[in-house]
Design a protein that fits this description.
Largest sheet: 10 strands, mixed
Structural class: alpha+beta
Number of domains: 2
Distance between the termini: 18 Å
Number of strands: 10
Radius of gyration: 19 Å
Order of helices and strands: EHEEHEEEHEEEHHEH
Number of helices: 6
């Protein structure tokens, strides 16, 4: 039996999603909780390998079990064993063969800034303080260059999937939301550190340190050193992972 889990977590205390030998990660903590609940080793596969310190509102993972288990029991049982900064929001039965990463159609990330004179400590874990003035119109025009299929090598941190640097971006843009400045980007996949590197580079455009057209030049396999700095992890959240209709949960397909 294959289950799809939707997870939400604060990434502050974790070295990203992907299991590591020398650091605590979200995947490791989730697997430990589920293994304790099910009294057997459990392996979960995440849709996105979020970096250290990055948050998620709608991370998706899948796991395979040799026997059936109540979906509601997975949610409540896991959450009783998880720390308060990680929660399983939903569990859904899927048909055999579902893979959280390989079958993802798109991923939506959001990066948030606050431009006020002082950043509230209640917001400090999830947004980045952006003092001074930036040219939002220029940043919006620069972001338009990102849409389409490009070689994003210039925006990839070391240790990522550099052998496959081409990604498709379906939407990229800036907006103001409840007093915050927000960058939203939707694509079929992202390299390690890619969104944060894009944000740092677009900020250079907003500060007049880089031209709008320079973004287009960077989308041609340029080295990382030619792009801007990597924005802090705490401002980034994986909001949603989307799947094509053929990979709907079984309950939706059966109309239950």
């Amino acid at each position: 039996m294959v289950f799809r889990l939707t997870l939400s977590y604060r990434g502050t205390s974790y070295a990203g999603w992907q299991r590591q030998n020398n650091a605590t990660t979200v995947q490791q903590v989730v697997e430990r909780a589920l293994s304790d609940l099910l009294s057997q080793p459990v392996h979960v596969v995440g849709a996105s390998r979020t970096d250290a310190g990055v948050h998620a509102r709608g991370q998706v993972a899948h796991l395979e079990l040799p026997i059936d288990f109540p979906a509601r029991g997975l949610v409540h049982g896991a959450n009783q064993r998880l720390p308060e900064d990680i929660r399983v929001m939903a569990a859904e039965r899927m048909r055999e063969g579902f893979h959280a990463r390989k079958h993802a159609a798109f991923k939506l990330y959001r990066y948030r800034f606050v431009q006020g004179p002082v950043l509230s400590p209640l917001d400090a874990l999830f947004v980045v303080h952006l003092p001074g003035v930036v040219d939002l119109a220029a940043m919006r025009l620069a972001a338009e260059h990102l849409v389409g299929e490009h070689d994003f090598t210039a925006f990839a941190l070391s240790g990522g999937s550099h052998t496959q640097p081409v990604r498709r971006i379906d939407e990229a843009g800036w907006r103001r939301d409840s007093g915050a400045l927000e960058f939203r980007v939707v694509g079929n996949g992202f390299l390690r550190g890619m969104v944060r590197s894009i944000v740092g580079t677009l900020l250079e455009v907003g500060r007049g340190q880089r031209s709008i057209d320079d973004i287009q030049r960077l989308l041609d396999g340029r080295p990382r050193s030619e792009a801007g700095p990597t924005a802090p992890a705490r401002g980034l959240t994986l909001e949603r992972v989307g799947y094509p209709p053929e990979w709907r949960p079984l309950t939706e397909q059966e109309g239950l």
